[in-house]
Amino acid sequence: MSYALTEEQQLIQQSAREFTREYIEPIATEMDRTGIHPSAVVQQMAEHDFLGLYLPEEFGGTEAGYLSYVLIIEEISRMSGAVASILINHASLAAYTMYRFGSAVQKQECLPALCSGEKLAAFALTEPGAAPGVGSHKVIATKEGDHYVLNGHKCYVANGGVADIYVVFALTNPEAGAKGMSAFIVDAKAAGLSIQRTIGKMGLRGCQSAELIFENVMVPQSNLLGAAGAGMKIVKEAQLVASVAEGAQVVGIAQAAMEDAVKYGKQRVQFGRPIAAFPAIQTMLAEMATHIHIARLAVYDAASLIEKGEDFMKEAAMVKLFTGRIGQSALIDVIQIEGGYGYSQEMIASRFYRDIKGAVITESSAAFPEKVIADDLLA
Amino acid sequence: MPRILVCYKWVLDEQDIKINPGDLSLDSSKAKYKISDYDKNAIEEAMLLVESKEGSVDALTFGSDKVKQSLKDVLSRGPGKVDWIGDTAFEQADAFVTANVLAAAIRKNGSYDLILCGEGSSDSYSQQVAPRLAAILSIPAITFVQKISIDGSRIIATRKLGDCTEVVEVAGPAVLSVLPEINKPRIPSLKQVMAAAKKPSQEVKLADLQLGAEELQPKTITLSVKGYVMNRKNILYKEANQADNVAKLVASLAQEGMC
Amino acid sequence: MADMTLTHEQQKLQALAREFTAKHIIPVASEWDEKGEFHKFILEEVKNIGLHCMAVPKEYGGPGCDSVSQSVVMEQFGYGCCAFATTLGGNGLSSYPLAIAGTDEQKQLYYGRLVAGGMGGFALTEPGAGSDAGSCATTAKLDGDKWVLNGTKCFATTCGVANIMVVFASTDPSKGVKGLSAFIVEKERDGFSVGAVEHKMGIRSSNTVELLLKNVRIPKNHLLGNEGEGMKIAMKTLDMARPIVASMAVGVAQRALDAAVAFAKAYLDVNGKPIGMQQAVSFKLADMAIQVEAARQLVRNALRLKDAGVPYTKEAAIAKTFATDTAMQVSADAVGLMGNYGYSKDSFVEKLMRDAKVTQIYEGTNQVQRIVIAGQLLR
Ligand SMILES: Cc1cc2nc3c(=O)[nH]c(=O)nc-3n(C[C@H](O)[C@H](O)[C@@H](O)COP(=O)(O)OP(=O)(O)OC[C@H]3O[C@@H](n4cnc5c(N)ncnc54)[C@H](O)[C@@H]3O)c2cc1C
Ligand SMILES: Cc1cc2nc3c(=O)[nH]c(=O)nc-3n(C[C@H](O)[C@H](O)[C@H](O)COP(=O)(O)OP(=O)(O)OC[C@H]3O[C@@H](n4cnc5c(N)ncnc54)[C@H](O)[C@@H]3O)c2cc1C
């Protein structure tokens, strides 16, 4: 790795590595089995200043920069994609949105608690419109005096049910479609907001997903994030910022999986030699190593742009597009290299296989990477 | 309000060192550096002592020109200041030379109530630097320490000796070398990492320490450093009957004098 | 919709299998996957319609289905649940050595048990002998008029519940591959026991176990073919079985495609339009369909060659590789397209993605298929 990391960044990376070994490694397998939110780990992350690490000091952050932040995500992901997801949803999606689009008052009110770990945040965007027969559950926000009243369902909300504060997207003008969407800060304890259920997932188990129900939830107008109707713009930017962190998550998982495959390939003997001696295996390893390397450079580059406050949309989308492809194929190959044994639930590769898919999902068409890149090229 | 000094060594991470299968030479080309493991315990112990008592912790290291890379790392673990000596003399230094250099730096730069070392370094583990340092400074040395408390100018330490413990008390200043079980070093938080950049570090030139040539002349010369490998005999017993295989295995172990 | 390229008989069988799948497999597949227990009761149901031992010839009381018919049924079962299809596929696989090398007496015994409702198993793989099946350490020694078997087999599908099995053992370890022989072993033989059960990432309700053979004595006439013909029999068996695995894989891929299409029609974007109207989505669906259809036709092609009695080794290996790669790709694409919903246990596509991976591994990894294909090309 020749990407020039500063001394601080290297130390932060080292810290995160020690942290992961100390606090995450002992619980990662069990957490995958039970799917239970690791609140002790989150508390430890707070104490080590991971939760607000790229946010400015004036809001309780550490101001270590976005590149340092993705370095931490990468390290954590080498052991647990789920813990990385908890952090990404908190820091890149929810906290970022408040930081970038919140008013001075909103930032002063919300961010310090998110940085200190007193509160965990979540980003509530997806609606369960897809489940057959469920119909539309769009969350609608109706203005009443100095309040908005929210009604509807949100689904697959990561950190849902364990978060203390939600960034919720709702239609303030349903007729206008995308242009009528707005973002709100909603307290988890708000009357009328309840958790319908938690939702099982293929992987990233431990990063709890839940379905939220809004029944006449009163949200003060002062909790509107940005302008009314700015929702889609906010979603796009927040998701692209998160894409870079998810790219680091993919890189971390794939790197750890590759190292596992290398180790296995050197030990497993068939036809009188280690399978790693077969060109077919070497080709798979060489390709994934190349992909991971390039992906990492792209992630660091996009993170640097974010850190410097430069335009990062296209580069972030490229990270999403590229890591989406290579992460998936790396894990398909890792299991292939480990053969029948790799397919066993007891092998770490099978967890990485399930986890990496969650890291590469694109949820919103607003941040559809091909579209973002093409729009930039054609502008 | 004790003033504490911690000596730490900046060593190659042994996990990264590979042994070349041919001549058994060590390949450290891909090895990264780290603070020697027991020294992290020493640093942590110093921090714990001042946390309950106030006081200050400084760090001191002697190394090659690479030792500069260690400054932010050590400062992120708590000490308020670090003095460092980076010199090529380090490459040949043995415990004798190391202790001479450290002692000279300590004399030059200040007085301490307590000097902490790790029990041995992660790389050479000669366990000599701490006692030698004490001898040169003419102060007491306490080794194999697994517990420390400070009461005014008195230092009370529990030493681990084989199957018993010994509690000793000295009037400071003194040099103590600590065992890994004394504590569990904390992982620095990111705020500590960021704050490290703002803490002072001071280079001490070896030339300014006024050591005589003889004091820099190692007593021990390292002739070679080699890895050792366990060779497998690669014998496979392939009899159809397992009992035959076992019999052959036992016979060959007996032949090697193993049973 | 009937497939007009099939004969009338085959169409009828396809309709029967489709109905069975809809009625008995699909409703319970997820539940059994979650539990990871053997789906015994589906097996009981399939016996009622006589599709549990399709490969057994009519003269031995079986349905004597031709290869295309078997494939058509297995595609439907794969559509419903890859684990269940694996159980039935394994049953068929275990009976092929009889068709290749069995005497009339041996067929009476083996087929008789299958027709009566017993399950068959095929135990070739060992801890040290996966792709390199020839390096088998299980031994068979003649003692009077009995063979005595000793060793450990692993990854043996259904063998924890099977009634009768084909087990491979070396009759002459000094000859390596040429010392390998095939035997019929009934489960009630003394010294036969089932070891550890494999906990897998996918096809979780298929039974995969270790077999322990300790001085298992079987009659002399339980040797299939001649001593030393084991490898030849195994290879011919796998030739026959590969298009069947490929058929299951086509079923998995078709299910993923259907799920993605249904989702694309039902899921509305923020503007209230089905996402299938976006070209980015509709072209993806088209790509998936191209692969699924190509895979299906490759399978049919290999089987028609087989039923015509001409060499089909290369075509079978090509079909297995392409169809299983398709199952992998299309199931992963479906999860991606369906986003968080696809990744959750609310949908079943995440199961398809876990199941699909094994098809690239068992019955010869896709690297081994390339060895076979290249071997044919370079002869
Ligand atoms: C395999 C091997 C075996 C050896 N055996 C012997 C032997 O038996 N007898 C012998 O006389 N020599 C021996 N040596 C050589 C020599 O003692 C050491 O290499 C020498 O440099 C002492 O340092 P150490 O790292 O062993 O220190 P140690 O005495 O093990 O270190 C103890 C503590 O002293 C402090 N310290 C050590 N070095 C520094 C530093 N540079 N800066 C700041 N603090 C420091 C740290 O707190 C450290 O934890 C051996 C060397 C090798 C490689
Ligand atoms: C769920 C499940 C069910 C199974 N059911 C059965 C069953 O019923 N009966 C049975 O006998 N077996 C069964 N198997 C075993 C299966 O056939 C083996 O897993 C498979 O043959 C691969 O062997 P392996 O897992 O030991 O991988 P290995 O052979 O160790 O292969 C590891 C990797 O090396 C590659 N490789 C190996 N040799 C070469 C080479 N020469 N050139 C290039 N690449 C190479 C492989 O492709 C693979 O990627 C089952 C396996 C599973 C997972």
TrEMBL record, chain A:
Keywords assigned by UniProt, alphabetized: FAD, Flavoprotein, Oxidoreductase
E.C. number: 1.3.8.1
Pfam assignment, any one: Acyl-CoA_dh_1
Broad EC category: oxidoreductase
Residue intervals of the Acyl-CoA oxidase/dehydrogenase middle domain: 122-217
Domain Acyl-CoA dehydrogenase/oxidase C-terminal stretches: 229-363
Domain Acyl-CoA dehydrogenase/oxidase N-terminal, first and last residues per copy: 6-118
Cofactors, names only: FAD
Keyword Oxidoreductase annotated: yes
Any one GO MF annotation of this record: flavin adenine dinucleotide binding
Similarity comment text for this entry: Belongs to the acyl-CoA dehydrogenase family.
Name the UniProt record assigns to this protein: Butyryl-CoA dehydrogenase
From TrEMBL, chain B:
Residue ranges the record marks as coiled coil: none
SUPFAM superfamilies according to UniProt: Adenine nucleotide alpha hydrolases-like
Domain Electron transfer flavoprotein alpha/beta-subunit N-terminal positions: 23-213
InterPro entries assigned to the protein according to its UniProt record, in alphabetical order: ETF_a/b_N (IPR014730), ETF_b (IPR012255), ETF_beta_N (IPR033948), Rossmann-like_a/b/a_fold (IPR014729)
SMART domains: ETF
MF (Gene Ontology): electron transfer activity
Pfam family, one: ETF
Family annotation (Gene3D superfamilies): HUPs (3.40.50.620)
Protein name per UniProt: Electron transfer flavoprotein small subunit
Species this chain originates from: Pelosinus fermentans JBW45
UniProtKB/TrEMBL annotation, chain C:
EC number(s) from the headed UniProt entry: 1.3.8.1
Limits of the Acyl-CoA oxidase/dehydrogenase middle domain: 121-216
Keyword check for GTP-binding: no
Domain of life: Bacteria
One Gene Ontology term of the molecular function aspect: short-chain fatty acyl-CoA dehydrogenase activity
Domain Acyl-CoA dehydrogenase/oxidase C-terminal: 228-377
Cofactor(s) the protein needs: FAD
Statement: the UniProt record of this protein carries the keyword Thylakoid: no
Family: Belongs to the acyl-CoA dehydrogenase family.
Protein known as: Butyryl-CoA dehydrogenase
Higher taxonomy: Bacteria, Bacillati, Bacillota, Negativicutes, Selenomonadales
